[in-house]
Write a sequence for this structure.
């Protein structure tokens, strides 16, 4: 446990451009992957849990459908948003102010966690956080992320999206939890490829803006606890 604690570093990057955050992740991801190729050649690099917010941006997963972006380039400029094709899994999503974006860069093999188990771990961390605020959230069969009212065909809505990349059991990219997010930006896409599922936020569900700093602190604590205790 002590060794693992020393290897997972938390960084709050604040508001950061999407490309800049992507590059920041890649450097740390590559360091861990390189180490796993030649573990005898260097000291084990640190693992990271990164939090940030992004300016308005749409990102498309490597197997996503570009048609799920419902607006043209000119309109992106009008709403002060950018668009990136990425190397993560999943389809299209939105990142913006008031959203906690989390990028765990961890060695799942070192932590003793499988990839499917890792996704569930992230989902469970979000569900635990939301439960503390009286929001009843759950998994949805056949879809990643965290959802509300999954059994209701009209009311079902997503509050947290998940899309990851994994190489040699090292992860990057991650999740996006809508806290005080402007949900209007989701109307310009089919979120995560779904045409009939809605999107929500903590602010919308509870009818008031949330303490963003407090949410991040609580979520950091929950996620790190789950990473470090999953197979202890």
């Amino acid at each position: 446990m002590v060794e693992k604690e020393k290897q997972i570093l938390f960084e709050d990057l604040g508001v950061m451009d999407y490309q800049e955050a992507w590059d920041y992740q890649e450097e740390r991801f590559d360091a861990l992957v390189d180490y796993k190729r030649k573990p005898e050649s260097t000291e084990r690099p640190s693992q990271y849990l990164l939090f940030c917010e992004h300016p308005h941006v749409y990102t498309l997963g490597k197997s996503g459908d570009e048609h799920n972006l419902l607006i043209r380039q000119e309109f992106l400029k009008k709403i002060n948003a950018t668009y990136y094709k990425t190397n993560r899994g999943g389809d299209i999503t939105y990142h913006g102010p008031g959203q906690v974006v989390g990028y765990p860069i961890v060695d799942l093999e070192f932590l003793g966690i499988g990839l499917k188990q890792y996704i569930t771990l992230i989902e469970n961390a979000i569900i635990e956080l939301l439960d503390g605020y009286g929001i009843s959230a759950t998994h949805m069969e056949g879809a990643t992320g965290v959802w509300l009212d999954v059994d209701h065909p009209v009311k079902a809505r997503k509050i947290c999206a998940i899309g990851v990349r994994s190489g040699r059991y090292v992860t990057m990219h991650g999740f996006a939890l809508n806290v005080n997010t402007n949900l209007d930006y989701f109307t310009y896409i089919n979120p995560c490829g779904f045409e009939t599922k809605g999107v929500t936020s903590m602010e919308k569900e509870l009818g008031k803006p949330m303490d963003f700093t407090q949410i991040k602190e609580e979520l950091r604590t929950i996620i790190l606890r789950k990473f470090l205790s999953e197979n202890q």
Observations:
- The radius of gyration is 17 Å.
- The first strand starts at residue 8 and ends at 15.
